[in-house]
Amino acid sequence: MTIIAGFSLLISFFILLLIGVPIAISMAGASIVTMLLIAPFDVAVFTSAQKMVTGIDSFTLLAVPFFLLTGIIMNQGGIALRLVNVAKLFTGRLPGSLAHTNIVGNMLFGSLAGSSVASAAAIGKVMQPLQEKEGYDRKFSAAVNIASAPTGLIIPPTGLFIIYSLVSGGTSVAALFLAGYIPGILWGMATMAVAYIIAKQRGYTTPHKVPLRAAMKVLWDAVPSLFLIIIIIGGITGGIFTATEASAVAVLYALLLSFAYRSLSIKQLPGILKETAELTVVIMFLIGTSAMLALVMAFTGIPAAISEGILSLTDNPILILILINIILLLIGTFMDVTPAILIFTPIFLPVVSEFGMSPVHFGVVLIVNLCIGNITPPGGSALYVGSKVGKVKMEEVIRPLLPFYAAVIAVLMLITLLPILSEWLPRLAGLM
Q1: Nearest to 184 by CA among 229, 148, 149, 154
Q2: Residue 208 carries which DSSP code?
Q3: φ and ψ at 316, to 5 degrees?
């Protein structure tokens, strides 16, 4: 029965995807078709609908729309330019300084906006004209922006860790947030290393040193924006408020800050709220349909069967992790991060738990894996946005991205094989 259900679920899911049905509806359709093999029609439909509703009935999930709203407010509230100016202070003396500014800008803004697409668009729009003016090759500039855009999905606060926490059975959000810092920074540093080598080879110029007074002014302007990270992470890890409460505080803070900067008006709020509502509906519908899929898989024993199948191939944890990484890297090339987390967490988490891998460590490995898919063809959303902002064709930027792909995959392997990179900060905070 497990084999029949597995084939039914897989075949119906991919047939629906191939004919152009949206992924959330494909998950729902495949779940119902498979449920019909094991239950009467009325029971299958009622159970599936009930599971879809209970799947999104979670206080923790309230953090998702609030963090989305925070990111959209900051994207339109003049935050990006201030963070770019801060990044210039730390990278201005390096060869290819504007490329490094782009990377650090993505790390800072992305961690606040929680979106690789928003980061690639906002920072790319600021940096592309500056790099072009300094004689940087457009394809190189676009590659730098694209390669560093997903860092904001790993460096907290990020909604992906909240979704993973829910699907993994309640892994600590605070522990996951802290676990994302070192891997996210390593990703950024790896892209900076590649950019440094290429800039050195091409002789890209270095701007003059920024006067101390000007530097202090830039820092002073950006401190309120950077303080948001301290409020959120400090509040959660310090037990002052939950992740959901922190997300609501973040909305209020971002709104007040944008009004203080006079870069946001009351007239823009309806549009911001509409965009947030549209994104929230998409994500919640995905989570609801994935709950249906999880019910079917659990009922038919598919995750246990896959776990036994993988473990029967080898009992070497390193080989199993490499195999899972390869599968997730392939999945990430055509599937968005959120649905992939929802689908593959219940499949692979039991496998890695067999040899003692912590849910926190696996969560970071899973998300870093899938974030690489954000910048790879054919489905990389940050790749398309970054190409458009960089004024180059997507096909033209793939070759310049190759050394960045190699660097990021090297970071992925380090994170996979060295649990301390993900677990050190949570353990230091007493969360593991």
Answers
A1: 154
A2: P
A3: -85, 115
CA distances from residue 117 to 5, 49, 51, 220, 284 in whole angstroms, order as listed: 36, 32, 31, 27, 19
Domain of residue 126 covers 58-429
Residue 165, token pair as written in the block:
């926490």
| Cβ neighbours for 231, distance < 8 A, ≥ 6 positions apart | 246, 249, 250, 253
CB 42 within 8 A of CB 30: no
Q: Which residue has the tokens 């993505």?
A: 106
Task: Give per-residue pLDDT as tens, 258-289.
Answer: 888 887 888 888 988 998 888 888 878 877 88
pTM for this one?
A: 0.80
One domain for residues 69 and 12 = no
Judge if 38 and 180 occupy the same domain.
no
Q: Report which residue type is found at 65.
A: P
* Blockwise average pLDDT, block size 10, the chain, 432 residues: 73 84 82 80 79 78 81 74 74 78 84 75 80 85 91 84 87 90 94 91 70 74 78 79 83 86 85 87 81 76 75 83 89 80 86 89 94 82 83 87 95 94 91 76
Which among 328, 414, 342 has a CA at the least distance from the CA of 374?
328
Tokens read off for 362: 């696996």
pLDDT tens by residue, 149-178: 899 889 887 778 988 998 888 888 889 989
Amino acid, single-letter form, for residue 126:
V
Structure tokens, 147: 């390669």
Residue of 79, 66, 130 whose CA lies nearest to 108: 79
Amino acid at 133: K
Please tell me the distance from the alpha carbon of residue 11 to that of residue 7, in angstroms, as a whole number.
6
Q: How many domains does the chain have?
A: 2
C-beta separation of 375 from 103 below 8 A: no
**Claim to verify: residue 46 and residue 89 sit in the same structural domain:** no
Residues 27 and 75 in one domain: no
25 & 96 share domain: no
Of 326, 366, 371, 331, nearest to 348 (Cα)?
366
Give just the sign of the alpha carbon dihedral 317, 322, 327, 331.
positive
Residue 53 CA to residue 56 CA, distance in Å, equals 6
Same domain? 21 vs 161: no
Last residue of a domain, one of 57, 77, 99: 57
The amino acid occupying position 354 is: E
315 and 390 housed in the same domain: yes
